[in-house]
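hey so i finally got around to running the thing on that chain from the lab meeting. sorry it took forever, my laptop kept dying and i had to restart like 3 times. anyway pasting the input first so we r on the same page abt which one it is
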Amino acid sequence: QVQLVESGGGLAQPGGSLRLSCAASGFTFSGYAMSWARQGPGKGLEWVSGIYADGSDTSYADSVKGRFTISKDNAKNTLYLQMNSLKPEDTALYYCAKDLGERLTGVFDYWGQGTQVTVSS
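ok and heres what got predicted. didnt touch it at all, straight out
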């Protein structure tokens, strides 16, 4: 069965960095686009970033553009999100999600359980 397991969350200071990972299993990871989404306290779910199946193209929400970098290691079946210049408003539960296709459709059929990121001094 499909499993997506996030890790790497924690407490960071404003201006700091964290690297999230999402270990995937149960499907052909190299054949699907993947995304990161987040839900902050009292907020709705926000799409953060996505990457094509082969890693050839990426996309970011305006709120994280220039600060976050998504990457995909198909040999390791792992999705990453490098988060730099963190802000308190980045505090959220971060999820990885499997897209329906090779390119970013914005429709997801599987989600991980989430990893908490807290940005505070």
